Amino acid sequence: MAYNLDELEAPGWLNDEFFLNVMRESNNDPTIELTSGCVLRPGTKKGDHYASVMFRTTVSYRSKQFDGVKSVNLIMKTKPEEDGLKKELLKDDGLFVIEIDMYSKTLPEIARLMKDIGEEYKYPRYIYGALQPRTILILEDISDQGWVMDDFISTLDDMKPIVKDIAMFHAASVMLETTDPKFVENHSFTMAEMFMNFDGMIKKGFGDLMQLTKLYPEFAHFAKPLEQFQANLRDFYVELYKPSNTIQNVLIHGDFHSKNMLHQVDAEGRHTDTILLDYQICSWTTPAIDLYYLLDMIPSQEVKDKYRSELILMYYQHYSDFLKRMGFLGKIPTLLDLQIELLRQAGLELFHYAVFSSFRYMDQTAIDIEALLKGEINNPVLENEEFKKVIHSELTRFLHQGTLSCA
């Protein structure tokens, strides 16, 4: 199994003394003692995540407060220590502040609201978080409880628990905003400027599309519209993450893609449940951001093409139903309102296709992802016929709906 290189050797401070203190603090039990050493393992496979360094371990311990020995599997998210793009992006603690707050405060409140109406919002159990002396987030590792990561979702039925989860998350956040006058202020983070730090990746993605317009005659007519779109890209992205004036804002997950969720799978391979992960860029803004991730970054292209409208309807039905059951007194947007908002923000979907779609058509374990993100190496998929077919179809759709301007 190929792992991220920066997860092959854990930093020295992740030692038994550290885990002993974590277990004592998280359990409020100073009598805890470890019964064996904690062996650190890489956290994820190569390509499964990017914005942190992750490790796993098992802690076995005893206490004067119970008989016998207990154990818990942990997964740790830390800041990169080696120089590179990861370290540059995470040079401050902002994303860890958000995620620690989400797991320790906001997600428990969302789960409480859902429980009150007979629903269950699941998330990994928060164990420990700190910014000093080292930045770290520790959660219970649930991978031994039947939760598995999957690739792009290939059936509508397997999309259903995902759609329900994000609708639940959005609806509960709307209710929290009505009772907490500081909720919006506390979740006012914007990913816009940070994401623009991926300048090399963005230029490379759009540069690859421009290369298609030069290499293949059937793409030539997209060249001018793509140039015009790129000229206003930064302004579009900054405005996108500001709270919307045209639809009910929600707390978005913000990094809602196939690698940031785990699934329960039955004997026939069907997804029976889904749990979301990585709440590090949550912010209060338009639901269109998460919904374009829902359409573009989770299902297979075939599922998206066939069920695009049904997925949005499914989300809307869950979202409005949850709000009604929780007693929301405000105006719930109509399905038409939501569709108009999606069209208004469709530049994000074009951005997704330009910057991320090629990853579906490459072996990420066989390529230097950081070099690709920096725009230092050529994209190997430009000659892939399936990739070219999808991009041509989607660029045509963007042109016809006005997301790309032919003026």
UniProtKB/TrEMBL annotation:
Fetch the Pfam families from UniProt: EcKL (PF02958)
Annotated CHK kinase-like domain ranges read 137-325
What PANTHER family is this protein classified in? CHK KINASE-LIKE DOMAIN-CONTAINING PROTEIN-RELATED, PROTEIN KINASE-LIKE DOMAIN-CONTAINING
Query: Which species does this protein come from?
Result: Anopheles dirus
User: What is the protein named?
Assistant: CHK kinase-like domain-containing protein
